[in-house]
Recover the amino acids of this structure.
DNA sequence: GATGAATGAGCCTTCATTCAT
DNA sequence: GATGAATGAAGGCTCATTCAT
């Protein structure tokens, strides 16, 4: 767990409720990252959160629902994160697309637990349909954004490639990156991930990510 | 479960042993594919295999070891499969590399349970180090083959790209494909996966997979 | 089981904890007495105590530890019992030694389960070293007390016998008594056990337990 | 286990039967001595005997019955042993009684497994009535012999003691000795056991085991 | 006769949930 | 609201026994 912030328990009821829910969600993320989804027991949540066992059922009714909230939390946080990165990028499709990629590539250097937990849900969604809507890459806002950026680039560059194909290629690459990273975070090097993605983009959108752009990137 | 082949139980002891072990391994693959790794209980294995509960411990000592054998089985089967595909390809690096990719792309149209089970182990390996050696893409024979084929292509085509980068890009793409497929096998279309990969290869190895080659592919 | 005292379950938590632990310990003693140490299963403990199966692990973590606590309980209760008997005796070594013997001889008329359970642990200690410290007669406070009383008598009477030998003889006799009693409690007669011990004491400490004393005893 | 005698398996069927039964009985004694009665599993018997698992049921039908045979074997061997010691003694009650005691006292220096196994059955007999007849000291030929020797001594010496009391005292002492020895065979010293018994005999039969006799013993 | 593969009952333990405190 | 004691279902494993080989 990262440095335990010594935030005091709020006195007001509605604030306390939020406080406890958040503590349990954080504990769950940590537990998933360390022991996998099936390694999350109520006892372990109590241990990791420092709260009583009954809190899970009090605040989320069922362990099930807590996990669902955790997934929502992860999805929201991820979306907020890449949208924030997007908002800082220049207002051109190429720059914005690269901002998305760079955000993913770079983020793997920190933020371990959340990423691993996300992957755990991603896997669980295969057999547990309840998680699917929140996990399906193709349905996410991220994928939508990538698609619209690709569409803009294709229109602008006159490329002979379908939007769907371009967007899928990019997301496949990023997902492969996640998995590769997750198996051994120590081994992962942002630089090599970046080059792999850049090369791919240069291939499908040469006028936007071709040699000139690559030189600028180093 | 696929159609239950009515293979009679062998009478000879050594054959029966192999027969039952195989039955348990198949049952495990099926159970993993349906319920995830943590959904594999001895009772469920008994149910899926039609054998007694004690058989798991009799033939594999611990459930643990059965699962390890399942993973080995999956790894072996996958390796045998792509190697067979490789052996049928023309003796040129480009053709051979494409044979590998095509094998992966096409295989997702069948073979559901094995693939999903493999992904489950892949995920489990993140938190359970015991599975890691058999799951780490970078250490596999597959990745080694991809690397040596890339090396040959780079030498032949004089490309300005590191072997590692090229090989990683290809495997990331394929792994992304696996995940995308796994979440909804019905949705998956081999054709679109093929195009995504082809486009990528054309980008990094244009002299081998460029326009001319793409035209040939359709 | 002896008549189930209808003591209501305490409402206060700390009292309830003691109450349930005690109930389980009593159930264990009863189960050991009826079925032997290896006949104590969690199911049987639940049955005998009227509590849920999970209570064993809740209150003692492992069945193992419950049994250890049972042994401690038996040892404590036995010690308290003979010490109480000792405290009521006159302040002379002979009277005190006899009080100890009489306590053992007489107690076998009641208190069945505890005694049989104790013997079961005594036996188990032979192959399970964990029980040994609490079972070893020679290390017990009882043996120490017997020794010091013997020492006092030897000094007072000028007997030509080692303290260790005298004390061992007495404890051997008492242990033989226990075993003989345990095989058939119905057959056991305190009177005959008493005579056997008295005769022995008269032999090694004639000036304290000789004819005159024997006459007084009846 | 003591040095494994390399006796070849007999060819003749009836001899082979005896041979295997004996091997299983020896294995059982060893297993009981090491792991206690409840630690004797068919697997362990197979391991210790070097025979197949099915042999237990083939030769003894049930594990139960094998154990019963083991107890009979132990009882027979013990009886043969003390009777042999008795036959070597001089033809006087005192000498014969002492031969019995000495046999017991001295035997504890070797013969570990059989003694510990015997004690295990002795304990088990408390809760399992099936073992009782073969374990009950008071019913055994040994006790009968002790009683008749005591009777002879009482008649000869004109002692004022009941036969039963005298015989019980002696057997209690010896049983106490067994238990004390069993908890720590390393600690046991035959000499001290001998002195304890001698002192006791001198007390109840002074004319036969009094000072003069004691001096002779050292 | 001898073997060990196959069975299913029973073992201890962990678990999510309920609910009195 | 917050706690953790109590429950009983389900988990993996060991076992004695049966019986085909």
């Amino acid at each position: 767990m990262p440095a335990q912030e010594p935030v005091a328990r709020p006195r007001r009821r509605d604030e306390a409720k939020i406080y406890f829910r958040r503590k349990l969600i954080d504990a769950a993320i940590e537990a998933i990252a360390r022991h996998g989804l099936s390694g999350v027991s109520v006892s372990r949540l109590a241990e990791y959160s420092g709260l009583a066992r009954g809190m899970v059922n009090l605040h989320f009714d069922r362990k099930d629902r807590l996990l669902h909230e955790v997934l929502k939390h992860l999805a929201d946080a991820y979306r907020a994160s890449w949208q924030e990165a997007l908002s800082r990028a220049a207002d051109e499709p190429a720059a914005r697309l690269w901002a998305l990629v760079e955000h993913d590539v770079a983020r793997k250097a920190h933020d371990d637990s959340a990423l691993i937990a996300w992957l755990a849900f991603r896997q669980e969604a295969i057999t547990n349909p309840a998680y699917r809507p929140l996990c399906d890459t193709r349905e996410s806002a991220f994928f939508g954004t990538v698609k619209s950026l690709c569409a803009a680039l294709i229109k602008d560059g006159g490329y002979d490639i379908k939007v769907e194909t371009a967007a899928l290629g990019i997301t496949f690459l990023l997902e492969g990156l996640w998995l590769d990273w997750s198996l051994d975070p120590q081994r992962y090097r942002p630089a090599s991930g970046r080059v792999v993605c850049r090369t791919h983009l240069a291939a499908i959108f040469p006028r936007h990510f071709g040699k000139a752009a690559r030189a600028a990137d180093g």
Summary: Chains B and D do not touch (no CB pair under 8 Å). Chain B has one domain: 13-216. The longest helix of chain B spans residues 63-87. The two ends of chain B are 36 Å apart (CA to CA).
